[in-house]
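User: My collaborator sent over this chain with a note saying "see what the structure looks like." That's all I know about it. Can you take a look?
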Amino acid sequence: MRAILAGGGTGGHVIPALAIAHELKKQYAAEVLFIGTARGIENRLVPAAGFPLHLIEVGTLNRVSFTTRLKTAIGLPGAVWEARRLLTEFHPDVVIGVGGYASGPAMLAAILKRVPTLAFEPNVVPGFANRVVARWVSAAAVHFEETARYFRNAKVTGVPVRQAFFEISRDATPSSPPTLLVFGGSQGARAINKVMFESAPALRERIPGLRVVHQTGERDYNDALMAYAPLGGSFEAHRFIDNMPGHFAQAHLIVCRSGASTVAEITAAGKPAVFVPFPRAADDHQRRNAEALEQAGAAVVLEEAKLSRETLVEAVGSLMGDPGRLAQMGAAARKLAHPNAAREIAEMAAQLAGLRT
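Assistant: Without extra context I'll predict from the sequence alone. Here is the result:
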């Protein structure tokens, strides 16, 4: 079996794609090729995982100036032609589009060549690339039930996340003292960081014995050290947290963004969350993701425009002071988890490729 995974740009696209690739290799001895662009995180993560990566040149059409859209539109046929050339050389049995810049041209090339296609869509509302090809793809793997209406032959599989998140026991009691985990992605989130620094004294006063573990990113790390120094060792700042599942296990509550991978990790771990969606995310997908969990009773949404010392302290303080509600939110989150996502997506790809599964 030969499979192409196309797309990337951010970790939310690339990390699940790598999980799918590993599962294809494990279950079907598949030969896998990635197609991406020069400006995406796939340039670092894909070769490090041992998979070949080919780059195509393609711009963006979403939330950019008219000049940029025009330039991208003019260059799009060339991107599709280059993707078609890669398909001709590699002879894939299936092409899996994971969203992001390279996904659209590669999926269009596969459709033109009548190669079976599988769209992977982790967000409630499909990204631009998947919306373009939605009506023509052979099948789709989605995270949310409401996303299935955009595609034909859609199946709710969830988003692949590390097994360690699922191994956080639903019966385990988080560490004492009460622990708040805060992060905004690998690079941090300046809006969340700034308000956390301002809120720290009031949070400690509102929640006796509070421990905070805060992944700030490189940019705000020194400011965090200055803000937390007067509060003693109970407020920890980290540039980056390697063992995120371990910190999930210790946390009573999580404050974070709501990208697709983060939402999937929250549900896998069965943790209550206060989501602060990134307001400039493409198609406002972070807000839609967060609202889906809020409607299920698993999270609280605090929009960045309303994020302040007062609103953060009230949201965190009221939740941390109500263990029963935290337990209910965690249970609601776990009901949305998909522990077999990578395997199910790999099975869909294998079936499209004509293999018996």
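A starting point for your reply to your collaborator: The chain has a mean pLDDT of 90.
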